[in-house]
Specification:
By secondary structure, the chain is α/β, with parallel strands linked by helices. The protein folds into two domains: 51-400, Alkaline Phosphatase, subunit A (3-Layer(aba) Sandwich), CATH 3.40.720.10; 419-502, Arylsulfatase, C-terminal domain. It is built from eleven helices and 18 strands. It has helices at residues 2-16, 77-84, 99-108, 133-139, 213-227, 252-258, 277-302, 345-348, 375-382, 397-400, 461-474, and strands spanning 52-58, 87-89, 92-93, 143-149, 168-172, 185-190, 195-200, 239-244, 309-315, 352-355, 364-366, 370-371, 412-416, 422-427, 430-434, 442-445, 489-490, 496-497. The strands form four sheets. It has a ten-stranded mixed sheet with strand order 7-6-5-4-8-1-9-10-2-11, sandwiched between helices. Helix 5 (213-227) runs parallel beside helix 7 (277-302). The longest helix is centred in the middle third of the chain and has 26 residues, at 277-302. It is globular. Bound molecules: calcium ion (CA). Residues 59-60, 99, 249, 316-317 line the site of calcium ion.
Length: 519
């Protein structure tokens, strides 16, 4: 009994601090864990213990933005250490080249040839009948939380986080709202309080910049990890926490007003660099996130959760040219070609680090080819379940834990519906890109030419033909995303035309987002 009392006291202290430092305490009571008592307390933890999962997703962070991926200008010592203590993947791909479809691919385990959501658009949402990774893990007994940017539904739509598998949520629903690093409100969902709605951040009223949202997300994450430790007072229930920083996405609206949309409280430790101010700020944003992740790792260690928590770090798509930055200045695409909104490697190849001391041997670098849509089946297996049928993803769990990985992708596929219609497909070392509807495939050999500089399609017609076959079966039409040409297609002979050939259906205006609202 004494042990129980002490435990409750510890929990109580942690709960009291949940939102205290986030500015929420004035408006909201603290959440509380389910009532427990001595008889409900398990006598021992179930064995083997399933891991907790912390999935950290950065926003528009490029393949070359971390020290462990070759950056010489941006300091990321904590992520470098994370990589050294786990597996750093060199050929991991985002689900898309912009936010919403990439995150949909991650949550649903499908690629953009099968998603309903294939681009950024106001009003887009996950559907009620679409099963998410969070729903799967919650059904498997995990306590699930989302902190930061969601971007897969706005208020009143079926895809809001609390209807898609998350027990708790604090953050941004909408991708454009997520541009604002000093917003005056966030959304919060807490079924225990219960609370569902907007939380006002009065300290940011009238343009004041007192609460920097990534700082708040870090505080919320550390509180979540303290409270939901899979200890006896939580009946050894593991957690799944998805921490979606907006770093280093630009505040596009601020960028248009001031020329610098890279918001951060201080440009340290880059203040004295002879760089343009937006570049200093961008580097400082990434280094600040790195320090935050370092604090989270310290907490996992101090609270005894380090050994059996899988920590994953990735990004949703490649680096942007927004908010006053030039993505080449800091080398954000590394050696790769292209940026956000391209289907060249720089738009879609992103960092992926996985650390799990209990099962993953440290110090590994892997060139295994996989993607966001593999996280669903992989984490389902980590949670001791079989993934649902019908996913495009494969489980990479065997590779993670040093077993033979027999399951490999025949190919990876992307399509993207801004600026017309782009497609890309990776097959072995080959990468094909169709940069706009109706144009011939470009072909690159990534082993010899990772920067996609030499289009070798003419030298390899057999490979092009094979990839055209794969493309024909890689996708199905989506009602909201008709295939359309770019505004002006050069017809044979040089005349510009907007006409689609009869074979292509769905010739309706693409409901794309206006440029000013591009997430
Ligand atoms: Ca993004």
């Amino acid at each position: 009994m004494r042990c129980f009392s002490v435990g409750v006291k510890v929990v109580g202290v942690a709960l009291a601090t949940v939102w205290a430092a986030t500015g929420f305490s004035a408006e909201l009571p603290s959440s509380a864990p389910p009532a427990t008592n001595e008889t409900a307390r398990p006598s021992r933890p179930p064995a083997p213990r399933r891991p907790s999962i912390l999935l950290i997703v950065a926003d528009d962070l490029g393949y070359g933005d971390l020290g462990c991926y070759g950056s010489t200008r941006i300091q990321t010592p904590n992520l470098d250490r994370l990589a050294a203590e786990g597996i750093r993947f060199t050929q991991f791909y985002a689900g898309s080249t912009v936010c919403a479809p990439a995150r949909a691919a991650l949550m649903l385990g499908k690629h953009t040839g099968h998603l309903n959501l294939r681009g950024n658009r106001r009003g887009a949402t996950l559907q009620a009948d679409e099963l998410t990774l969070a729903e799967w893990l919650r059904a498997a007994g995990y306590h699930t939380g989302l902190i930061g940017k969601w971007g897969l539904a706005e208020e009143g739509l079926p895809g809001v986080p609390w209807k898609k598998g998350f027990n708790e949520f604090v953050g941004y629903l909408d991708n454009v709202h997520a541009h604002d690093y000093y917003t005056t409100y966030l959304w919060r969902y807490d079924p225990v309080t219960p609370y569902e709605g907007k939380v006002t951040l009065i300290e940011n009223f009238a343009g004041a910049k007192r609460t920097y949202i990534p700082d708040l997300c870090t505080k919320a994450a550390t509180n979540f990890i303290r409270i939901h430790k899979p200890d006896w007072y939580n009946q050894y229930r593991p957690f799944f926490l998805m921490l979606c920083y907006t770093t280093p996405h630009a505040n596009n609206e601020e960028g248009r007003r001031t020329g610098n949309g890279m918001q951060v409280p201080t440009d340290a430790p880059y203040s004295d660099r002879p760089w343009p101010q937006p570049e200093k700020n961008k580097a400082a944003m990434i280094t600040r996130m790195d320090a935050d992740i370092g604090r989270i790792m310290e907490l996992l260690k101090a609270s005894g959760q380090e050994e059996n928590t899988i920590v994953i770090f990735t990004s949703d798509n490649g680096p942007h040219r927004e908010g006053g930055v030039d993505p080449a200045f800091l080398g954000s695409s590394g050696p790769l070609r292209g940026i956000k909104r391209d289907l060249y490697e720089g738009g879609i190849r992103v960092p992926m680090i996985v650390r799990w001391p209990a099962r993953i041997r440290p110090g590994q670098v892997s060139d295994f080819v996989w993607a966001h849509w593999d996280l669903f089946p992989t984490l389902a297996e980590a949670a001791g379940t079989n993934a649902p049928a019908g996913l495009d993803g494969i489980s990479v769990f065997p590779l993670w834990v040093g077993e033979t990985q027999t399951n490999r992708h025949e190919y990876l596929y992307w399509e993207f519906h801004e600026r017309g219609f782009q497609q890309a497909l990776r097959w072995g070392d080959w990468k094909a890109v169709r940069p706009q509807w109706g144009s011939p495939l470009e072909l690159y050999n990534l082993r010899e030419d990772p920067g996609e500089r030499r289009n070798v399609a003419e030298q390899h017609p057999d490979v092009v033909a094979k990839i055209e076959d794969l493309l024909a079966r890689a996708r199905v039409d989506a009602p909201d995303w008709p295939i359309r040409p770019p505004p002006q297609v050069q017809a044979p002979g040089g005349a510009a035309t907007n006409r689609l050939p009869a074979a292509v259906s769905g010739d309706s205006p693409n409901p794309g987002t206006p440029a000013s609202n591009q997430p």
